[in-house]
TrEMBL record:
Belongs to the aldehyde dehydrogenase family. Transmembrane segments: none annotated. NCBIfam families: SSADH. The keyword Zinc does not apply. Keywords: Oxidoreductase. The active site is at E254. Coiled coil: none annotated. This is NAD-dependent succinate-semialdehyde dehydrogenase.
Amino acid sequence: MEQNSLIRNEAYVNGRWVKATSNKTFDVTNPATGEVIASVTDMSREDVRQAIDAAEAAWPAYRATTAKQRANLMRNWFNLMLEHKEELARLMTLECGKVLQESRGEVDYGASFIEWFAEEAKRSYGDVIPAFSRDRRLVVIKQSVGVAAAITPWNFPLAMITRKVGPALAAGSTVVVKPPSETPLTALAISYLAEKAGFPKGVYNTVTSSNSSDIGKELCQNPKIRKLSFTGSTPVGKILMEQSASTLKKLSLELGGNAPFIVFDDADIAAAVKGAILSKFRNNGQTCVCVNRILVQDKVYDAFLEQFSEAVAALKVGNGLDEGVQVGPLINQKGLEKVKQHVEDALAKGARVTTGGKALEGLFYQPTVLADATPDMLIAREEVFGPVAPVFRFSTEQEAVQLANDTEYGLASYFYSKDVARCWRVAEALEYGMVGINEGMISTEVAPFGGIKESGFGREGSKYGMDYFMEIKYMCFGGIE
Ligand SMILES: NC(=O)C1=CN([C@@H]2O[C@H](COP(=O)(O)OP(=O)(O)OC[C@H]3O[C@@H](n4cnc5c(N)ncnc54)[C@H](OP(=O)(O)O)[C@@H]3O)[C@@H](O)[C@H]2O)C=CC1
Ligand SMILES: O=C(O)CCCC(=O)O
């Protein structure tokens, strides 16, 4: 087991490192080896309630700080993350299997939300509205929403936390973070760095538990939490929304996707292959914006399939800590079973493997391309969340758009074409929150990330991100002569 000075086993509540009242712990394992990395505090609902109380108690003083004071704390935290980049990256690879190169990228990406929102804190302007009578003055200000909770997924152990707490902390909210039981160590490591950055006690809290459904109920039903931001599967998002009804909690839900990747016959095929590899195999296919369906126009179908299959066959699979590895393991057995089921179903319905198609040892699966995919296959309807790329065929632009939109999801979409008029037409017709045009990698802190339809609502990152952690207050001054 490698040493890592950032490993913490206890939860971080009210500026202290705490055990569960029951003293229980749960194990965190390395998906590449099955080895137990650490045992982490297993909190109960009652333990979490104490963290919420601490966050609420810390809110009045924290919201009263100036934007510049908050920005300075965030800047310290950002710098500490970058100082500890290598250790954070290795920890992330250990607990989620992501290849080291991508983990290093995630530290930069995750930290960028803290830097961005530290800057945005100073720009949360209000408005002065022209008054409807001479003796009034109408002003709008924005204020922190209150205590914010974040429930985050294992596929981005760092960035999905910072993308939520960045705007919250900038806006003057205190936070309670509930990381997934698969990857609590990165979350605890950045809590340690938040402590070193100087956030006052109770402002930043991280609760760990193996009982996410119980903790989820507390975070939804406790009226002290005013805002809940979640990234994860659509079914869990729906549960959280139902549970939040009793407190009319403000929600941001960033849920599953079923991203289409359309290659038109006027596309640069080499560029399309490169974009498809980037988007499909990022984090071994385990991101909500990963390509799920590749749609290729008749005339270029064979050429694309051949070049793409060749590129996929060349991907190096292995332990993410080994240099040169491009594709790591699936996160767990459930994830692996889903991949196997999708491939079996596709083969039974007439798909053909051009490369891959087999499970390897442990949680590894060969990067796979399935030709002749059709809309009746499971993989066309559900996100595979793994290294399998089904390639569909279409004839006309209208058919491509119709196929692309034929899903309840609406997160990311991509297409390749050199025709400018078509680029505008198709981009506008795609029912998705995000569109990559001749580009397979669209995520950045400066642009709004989020979906429509059953991919959820709310936007993260960008100048829009803070609005989801602020309330608008209208003030009407009367009696002004
Ligand atoms: N949009 C996205 O980015 C993601 C999408 N997914 C999709 O979901 C599928 C399943 O992955 P999975 O990890 O099970 O995703 P989940 O949606 O189950 O997990 C995401 C987060 O929600 C927590 N959680 C799970 N159930 C509840 C609940 N009832 N109340 C409150 N919190 C809860 C998890 O905690 P814990 O892990 O401790 O149970 C984790 O922190 C994937 O195959 C993929 O299709 C998954 C992850 C991210
Ligand atoms: O998969 C996800 O949960 C979304 C993160 C991906 C990204 O930010 O690009």
